[in-house]
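Quick one:
INPUT:
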């Protein structure tokens, strides 16, 4: 065990507040055994309603059972405790023990008189029926107990009740099996900590979203939409226990509550619809006061929800709460607040928000752009919009993005001269560094290319080249790099993508990825087959694609897979930790040969044999074909006959006869006339061999 893991848990928590192991160790060392029931109940009151963890609720039931046994209304308190637990977590797949304990508790309650006995039977039956309609583990046990319970009361009535509840039991049992498969791999005990982006975390997020989507399909087949909504909301709550730092889970849960509320309202269930609205508000409040207290996304979504409910004062309070957080940039919040005030109170009051934003030193230039566009689009006052831009230019003269927004605004208004003035003012300002002027020069050239003449275009292009040389002194410059921007339009380029990379255009623009829109027919990247791995890993699929990447890359299409293996056989090329399989041709040959277990000897020393063969000198005898058909001491006809007999003994003589090497040999000898003499031998021999092979004979008939 490392020194860090055995360090004092308090110190570990100080260095990392999200050290779950340290928290568990600290809790084990400080078990709450002081019997301070007031603080215990305060903790339960604080967390029970928001933390729907099955183990926490079981602990709560045990606590009530052990500490409230001496009070006068103990049985009523326990019954309310069980009912409260089943209302919150009764649909959990692990709720079997709670149902079982509740039923056992009800059965032990003394009943004096027939009326009290009937009340107890009704209460027990109600819990049984609720349990049988819930997909959970150990449902078979509850079903067997329920059947015995009904039979002990009234055998005649039991058959009817058991038949009625049998449908719910079978349906819940079916869904429970599907639920097991759906939740396989889910870590429901994981604690919410800031994500690190690991593969296991991504897998858990994927499994939870898959589980939620499955619950939305209504696997129980219930016709009551309220029950379906409750199950989906409960699944979201379970996911948030482990994924509390994922704002999208919070947002999706809130959106589902809003949609479910609207659906129930349309169906006429106004009470439940209002309850879901209240629950949605509670969800947002839990998020922005807890783990997501700095998530602007949830603040904005919460504000829109309250605006939809016509609660405008609540919306203002939400925005103000966000603006009071010092460590958050308030610019976007001011923009959204200004838009909200414009929608609900008009542009004049929205100007007051803009004034408040200008006084906030944390505000960025974007609020000036938003205010100017609001004046132009909503108030239809171009003069005020221009004054807003001028006011912002005094403060953000060193921000190239603000200058581009101002120039684009004037260009869209067809204020060509004023646009040039703005460009000149920004580019000649001493507050804007040379490296930030690049984008301004690019936009200036694009503007002149659209509205200016050739002389003005060349003038701007010349000045732009000087600016580039000063800003990128370490990059080799040439005129071709810069002239590209004169002729391009949107994603249309005057050169192909390969040519742009060879020129160095992408490096000049600071692009890490090459342009892909310049090729009308881009080469598709294979996703299957032997070239897929090469393409995915960056290989060129058999050739060095220098133009694609700008530098040579190794051709990995010829790489063979490495297989980890403990014991290596002689047929593989062993390396530390595994083997490399033989080449495809050798592997095919090995598949045709008998397995090594079939050979029992004699064994040959391969190294000695190879040494002897390498030292053997073969005679270099050459025989010329004579006029009487003799090749040296051998008759040519005898050689052919021996050759065809040899072919007849091969496993697949037809393949050998059709081989190009044999055809080339015959053509070189120039004895095509003699082929006819032995053609019958080929066919008869091949046919005889094929006739002896029953498998080949059947395959030939099938092909015919």
């Amino acid at each position: 065990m490392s020194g860090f893991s055995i360090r004092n848990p308090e110190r570990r928590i100080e260095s990392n507040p999200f050290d779950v192991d340290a928290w568990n160790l600290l809790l084990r060392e400080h078990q709450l055994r002081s019997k301070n029931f007031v603080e215990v109940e305060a903790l339960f009151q604080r967390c029970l309603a928001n933390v729907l963890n099955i183990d926490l609720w079981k602990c709560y039931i045990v606590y009530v059972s052990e500490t409230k046994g001496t009070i006068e209304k103990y049985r009523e308190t326990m019954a309310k405790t069980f009912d409260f637990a089943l209302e919150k977590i009764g649909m959990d797949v692990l709720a079997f023990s709670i149902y079982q304990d509740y039923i056992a508790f009800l059965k032990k309650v003394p009943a004096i008189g027939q009326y009290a006995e009937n009340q107890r039977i009704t209460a027990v039956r109600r819990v049984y029926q609720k349990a049988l309609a819930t997909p959970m583990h150990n449902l078979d046990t509850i079903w067997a107990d329920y059947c015995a319970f009904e039979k002990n009361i009234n055998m005649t009535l039991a058959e009817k009740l058991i038949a009625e509840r049998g449908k719910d039991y079978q349906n819940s049992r079916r869904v429970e099996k599907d639920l097991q498969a759906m939740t396989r791999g889910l870590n429901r005990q994981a604690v919410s900590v800031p994500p690190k982006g690991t593969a296991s975390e991504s897998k858990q997020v994927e499994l939870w979203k898959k589980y939620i989507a499955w619950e939305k399909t209504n696997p129980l087949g219930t016709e009551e939409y309220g029950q379906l909504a409750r199950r989906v909301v409960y699944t979201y709550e379970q996911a948030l226990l482990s994924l509390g730092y994922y704002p999208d889970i919070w947002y999706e849960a809130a959106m589902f509550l809003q949609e479910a509320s609207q659906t129930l309202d349309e169906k006429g269930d106004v009470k439940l619809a209002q309850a879901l609205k209240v629950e949605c508000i509670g969800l947002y409040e839990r998020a922005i006061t807890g783990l997501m207290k700095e998530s602007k996304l949830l603040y904005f979504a919460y504000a829109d929800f309250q605006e939809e409910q016509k609660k405008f004062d609540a919306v203002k309070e939400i925005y103000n709460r966000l603006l009071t957080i010092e460590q958050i940039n308030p610019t976007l919040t001011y923009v959204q607040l200004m838009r909200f005030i414009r929608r609900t109170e008009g542009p004049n009051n929205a100007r007051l928000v803009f004034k408040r934003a200008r006084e906030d030193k944390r505000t960025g230039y974007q609020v000036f752009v938003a205010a100017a566009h609001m004046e132009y689009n909503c108030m239809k006052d171009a003069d005020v919009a221009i004054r807003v831009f001028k006011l912002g230019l005094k403060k953000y003269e060193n921000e190239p993005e603000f200058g581009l927004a101002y120039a684009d605004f004037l260009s869209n208004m067809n204020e060509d001269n004023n646009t040039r003035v703005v460009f000149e003012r920004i580019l000649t300002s001493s507050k804007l560094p040379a490296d930030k002027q690049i984008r301004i020069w690019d936009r200036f050239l694009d503007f002149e290319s659209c509205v200016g003449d050739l002389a003005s275009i060349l003038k701007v292009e010349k000045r732009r080249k000087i600016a580039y040389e000063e800003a990128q002194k370490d990059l080799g410059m040439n005129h071709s790099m810069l002239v590209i921007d004169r002729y391009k339009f949107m994603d249309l380029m005057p050169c192909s993508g390969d040519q742009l990379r060879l020129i160095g255009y992408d490096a000049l623009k600071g692009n890490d990825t090459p342009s892909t829109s310049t090729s009308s027919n881009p080469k598709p990247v294979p996703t299957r087959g032997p070239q897929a791995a090469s393409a995915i890993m960056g290989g060129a699929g058999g050739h060095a694609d220098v133009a694609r990447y700008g530098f040579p890359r190794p051709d990995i299409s010829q790489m063979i897979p490495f297989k980890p293996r403990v014991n290596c056989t002689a047929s593989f090329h062993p390396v530390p930790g595994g083997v490399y399989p033989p080449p495809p041709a050798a592997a095919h040959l090995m598949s045709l040969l008998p397995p090594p277990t079939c050979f029992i000897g004699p064994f040959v020393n391969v190294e000695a044999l190879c040494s002897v063969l390498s030292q053997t000198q073969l005679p270099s005898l050459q025989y010329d074909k004579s006029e009487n058909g003799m090749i040296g001491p051998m008759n040519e006809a005898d050689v052919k006959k021996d050759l065809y007999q040899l072919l007849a003994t091969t496993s697949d003589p037809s393949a050998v006869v059709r081989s190009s090497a044999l055809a080339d040999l015959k053509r070189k000898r120039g004895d095509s006339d003699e082929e006819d003499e032995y053609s019958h031998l080929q066919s008869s021999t091949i046919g005889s061999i094929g006739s002896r092979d029953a498998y080949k004979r059947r395959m030939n008939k099938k092909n015919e």
